[in-house]
Amino acid sequence: MSRPDLASTRQNRWVAAIARITQDKAMRSDLDHLPDSKRQELARVVDVLFSEFADAIAGGTMPHKRKGRILKIVLFGSYARGDWVEDRAAGYVSDYDLLVIVNDRKLTDVVEYWSRAEDRLVRDYIAQTLSAPVNFIVHDLADVNQQLSLGRYFFADIVRDGVALFEAPGHPFTAPNRLEAEVALKEAQDYWAEWFPSAAGFIDTSRYVASQERTKEAAFHFHQAAERLYHCVLLVLTLYSPKSHKLNFLRSQAEQLDGRLIDAWPRGKKFEQRSFELLRRAYVDARYSPHFKISNEELAWLGERVSRLQALVKAVCEERLDKLQAAAAGQ
Q1: Each residue of 127-152: pLDDT tens digit?
Q2: Residue 88's CB: how many other CB atoms inside 10 A?
Q3: Pick the CATH number of 181-329 from 3.90.1170.50, 1.20.120.330, 1.10.3720.10, 1.20.272.10
Q4: What does the DSSP 8-state code read for residue 127?
Q5: Which of 45, 221, 298, 324 is least crowded, fewest Cβ atoms below 10 Å from its Cβ?
């Protein structure tokens, strides 16, 4: 499941990527590599996004609502590349990953404009109308084009490898510039210095409050530790991480970048699945719901797995930083 190093792969493909984007203002739009059932599901997802967004801006008097538009919906990640996984016996199913691009930054507010779409797509997956979970991020076109001009890997990869499920004419992407290795190294080092120690602090706090039998509090702090570890690895590897507290989303994004991270969360047994679900819910429910319960056994397992995630993130990030250091020294 592991993926090759991102640095060398990206550096070798920059010239071809820039040439392709310059020549073809419209993105690739074929889904021939997917079975009919997957194409039909993605069509449904697009319909949900459009209908819920239309409801969210309906009747708005502010200019950004009256003129609000979805400009692009781009499939990226494993379903765009063609290497998705459906190993239901082991509990591993690749997610649909989408980038939604709107015409105004104000329309990227997830709570105000996109929460109902998220809820509908979750319900569809639970009801088995969709065979895979759906994750989407929302950015405005000006922001994405700025990130491309700065050479940000995450967005350059999407433009190069993604598939346009919807694309309004007349709104091209900017051809990405090449990110200098020294700049990438400095940013990655800063992210590492900020996020990894923060995660370690939450792990220490979790263990302390668990020893005081404050299990709900411990579950919340384990959530925070895992969240920070995922943000850390995403930022170090791609210089981007979505503004999200959703562990299942962050886990999916990180595991696609380096398959070694899958080892942090065994998911073939019901106990393992239930325990991760408790961790996922802990961000809200462990603080506010009187009905949230977690056993000492579940909490101990979560502590072991978060520690395993910490070790894996450390190895992946240090490997990445070493390669960026070598690339910067060779410039």
Answers
A1: 999 999 999 999 999 999 999 999 99
A2: 10
A3: 1.20.120.330
A4: T
A5: 298
